[in-house]
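Render this sequence as a predicted structure.
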Amino acid sequence: MSGISFTLSENINLAPYCSMKAGGNAKYFVEPKTEAELLYALKYFKAIGERYIVVGKCSNLLFPDSGFDGAVISACSMKGMSVENGIVTAMCGETLSSLATTACENSITGFEFCYGIPGSVGGGVYMNAGAYGGELSNIFVSGRFINESLEIVTLTKEELDFGYRKSRMAFEGLILISASFKGEEGNKDEIRSLMDELMAKRKRTQPLEYPSCGSAFKRPVSNFAGALIEQCGLKGTSVGGAEVSEKHAGFIINKNNATATDVINLLNLVSDTVFEKTGVRLEPEIRIIE
C-alpha cells in the first residue's frame, strides 16, 4: 500500500475502538484520513478478494469475540466541516456532537438533539440516529457516497429512504463520504442553552460512566424498551460482565470486563424475557457484526 499515508495493521484488537469495549481482533485494520485514501483502501481489499467493513466510532456496533476475518476500515480520521448559506457539510468521521457544536457556533438551530450522541456522522446517517424527538433525517439534505461498485454517487434525503433507525445505506452497502445538513436560523445563546440542557439530562438519566452502545433495543410501537425491561424486573440482571443498567433499563453496560458474548447473551435473555412476559419482542438497536 505504498504511496498513501496510512498503514495496514494486522491482528488488531477491536475492543478499544468500540464504545462497548468488547470484541475480538480484526485480521486487518486501516484508518484512512481522506476520501482518496478510503477509496484506495476499498479498491485494494476488493482487488485481493478480502472482506471489509467501514466503521465510524463503533458506538452502536459490536464485533464478536472471534473477531472480524477481514479488513476493518475506520473512517474516524476523515475530518472536516464547512458552513455555507445555513448548510453544514461534514465529513463522515466528524462526531455528531461536533456537528451540533458547529451549527450552534453559526446560529443554526435543529441540530441540538445531536449533542451528546456518541457516534460519527457516517454511522449516524447509516442508522438515522436520533434522540429527544429529533433524528438526522429531519436535517439531512444530501450526501456523497461510495456504492458497491466503488463509484461515487450523490443521494438526496428522499433517495436515502430513511426510516426509524435505518436508511438505504444498510441495504445497499453504501459508504458515506460526507453529508450536508440544514437547520433554521436561530439564537446562539438559546441553542447552546438547549444543548446544555439535553447533555445534563443525558448525564442524569444515562449510565455514561460505563462502556455501552447506548440504547440496546429499538423503541417498540407505542411503548418504550426501557420501561418494558424495568416492568419485567430486569434492571441489574447480568450475564458475565454485562449488566442491564440500574440507572436506565434501556442500556446494557460493560460493568466488569464483559465479553461480546456476555453482551449478546444478555441481549437475548432480555428480549426473550420481555416477550414471555409482555408479548412484545424487542429488537436490538446494537448492530452485531458477524
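Summary. Residues 81-190 form a domain with the Uridine Diphospho-n-acetylenolpyruvylglucosamine Reductase; domain 3 fold (CATH 3.30.465.10). The helical segments are 35-47, 96-105, 121-127, 168-172, 188-205, 225-231, 260-278.
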